[in-house]
Specification:
0% strand; mainly alpha; UraD-like; 2-oxo-4-hydroxy-4-carboxy-5-ureidoimidazoline decarboxylase; 179 residues
């Protein structure tokens, strides 16, 4: 389940703005992977004038959090084609995003390479490799992993947060059917 409740009508900003905290968190809680606290905190900033304003409020919650909370948040993200993907326990959003980049249909060799790069990256930076998979092909993801492994960890932390912003902006826009 991706945290989006079954609604009788399309989800709109007006609907979101009128929701109580519990319904709001149910609707948006998994937009930020395994972090319903983001939606819960953003609820206080209603009403939202646009999908962009909603997203800005949500990403702002993460960015204003203490660094230890941000690191824990990043560590809550699944590795690309990793253990959660193999166990088919990804959120619906992550499953769709990884599949769109071709990560759901990799060869044994590609799986081994991905696992190797994921391990090196996590050992080096202390967080999983994060990229907006919807915006990349499998080949581009491998290239980015290779390029980013040797970067400074502080730079990778900033890059991971930038990628989270891309991922979640796309998710918010999809949830509200904004093109």
């Amino acid at each position: 389940m991706n945290g989006v409740p079954v609604l009788s009508a399309p989800l709109t900003l007006d609907t979101l703005n009128a929701m109580d905290r519990s319904a709001f968190v149910d609707a948006l809680g998994e937009t930020f992977e395994h972090a319903p606290w983001v939606a819960e905190s953003a609820w206080l900033e209603r009403p939202f004038a646009s999908a962009e304003a909603l997203h800005a409020a949500m990403i702002g919650v993460v960015r204003r959090s203490p660094q230890t909370t941000q690191i824990a948040f990043l560590c809550g993200h699944p590795e690309l084609a990793g253990r959660e993907a193999q166990a088919r326990s990804l959120t619906n959003d992550s499953q769709h995003e990884q599949a769109s980049a071709g990560l759901g249909s990799m060869t044994q060799e590609e799986m081994a390479r991905m696992a190797h790069l994921n391990g090196i990256y996590r050992d080096r930076h202390g967080i999983p490799f994060i990229i907006a998979a919807l915006r990349h092909t499998k080949a581009q993801i491998f290239d980015e992993m290779q390029r980013r492994i040797d970067r400074d960890t502080a730079d990778e932390f900033v890059e991971a947060m930038t990628q989270i912003a891309h991922i979640t902006r796309l998710r918010v826009r999809a949830l509200l059917s904004v093109n």
